[in-house]
Amino acid sequence: MLNDPLANMMSLILNNELIGKQECLIKPSSKIMKEMLAVMKEKGYVGEFKEIEDSRGNYIKLVLTGNINKCGVIKPRYSVKSKDFEKFEKRYLPAKDMGILFVSTPKGIMAHYDAKSKKTGGRLLAFCY
User: What is the DSSP letter of 44?
Assistant: First the structure.
């Protein structure tokens, strides 16, 4: 039984990146995972992905590009205001303007600098650089 499917997805992506695989299969899939992968694809960290249906829940086939050095989830899921992102950038990202924090906002899941530009806060989900 999976306690945190999001953490499992991030560790699976990181492990497959580190051993140099070209693609990975993520089971099970969820709406949050697909939205996070869409943000990662938009920012250039991963390639194409598609959801494949099977009889035991769906899974995601993801093409890796080799652009991820580290990724993981943030626990506990801190609540953050639009002006307080800098504290968490210093904590989870290696340098200024390097990497992204995933934020779950009322406007959907987005990167932290998109949330800053839209002046909205939310809950921190994960980081990637």
Answer: T
Contact 72, 4 (CB under 8 A): no
Q: What pTM value is reported for the model?
A: 0.92
Q: Which helix (H) or strand (E) holds 17?
A: helix 5-19
Query: Other CB atoms closer than 10 Å to residue 81's CB: what's the count?
Result: 10
Mind listing the domains of the chain with CATH numbers?
Answer: 5-64 (3.30.1370.30), 71-128 (3.30.1490.10)
Q: What is the pLDDT along the chain (129 residues), one digit of tens a residue?
A: 678 999 999 999 999 999 999 999 999 899 999 999 999 999 999 999 999 998 888 999 999 999 999 999 999 999 999 899 999 999 999 998 899 999 999 999 999 999 999 999 999 999 999
